[in-house]
Amino acid sequence: MDLNIKKNKLPKHVAIIMDGNGRWAQKKGYTRIYGHNKGVKSVQKIVEEALSLDIPYLTLYAFSIDNWNRPKKEIETLMNLLINSLKREFEKLIKNNIRLNTIGNIKTLPKKVQDEIMRVSKKTKKNTKMVLTIALSYGAREEIENVIKNIAMEVKNNTISIENVDHSIINKHLYTQNLPDVDLLIRTSGEQRISNFLLWQIAYAELYFTDVYWPDFGKKDFYKALFNYQKRERRFGKTSGQINF
Ligand code: FPP
Q: Structure pTM?
């Protein structure tokens, strides 16, 4: 397959559901935890590739609100992996002008994870080449619930009138308030569902599903997804004729 990527037709915002660490490991006779460790390597690779393609927004689903139901030991490992990755990659974020951003109910994370996120977010907040967003303790329905509560409160307090509630007001209340809509959503591991990820923000996203497990997902697979995206016609409700005029 010719994987020549057109630089002028790349998605601005790529979001990824990084799935299959556990199954990858179990198939090979390793522990699930080993699979998560390998998953971190894929994160590094994909951040580097996105960076070299000048993709300005990359959002990764690292821990969903439902992942709290996993065994305690696995949750602990994921939290430690996160802290260690942030510590280890910090210099690289600075060097490559990457800003770390998080979405989700961060207050429910262990204090040491919150502290590390705060530290790295603060130190990288002026970086401009890429916004790397990690979704942690994230659930889209919970995000939308909060938006509704906050807007209702503002209506009640007369700081906003009900007629003015529109897409743009809703966007401003989401965790993703500083991010553009998702252009391309990738899910690895063969599952074809959204699993409560960015429900509002993917309204017009192109969806790409691959059977590859996250620990095996590398440059070739990322390029395949981008190449596939570039073949699609994004019409946003218009006709093909209107788009190509
Ligand atoms: C899905 O595999 C993966 C996760 C729930 C965690 C993803 C986390 C990482 C790759 C590591 C930390 C992240 C960063 C950003 C440094 P799964 O366990 O659901 O796999 P399964 O569906 O095969 O069981």
A: 0.95
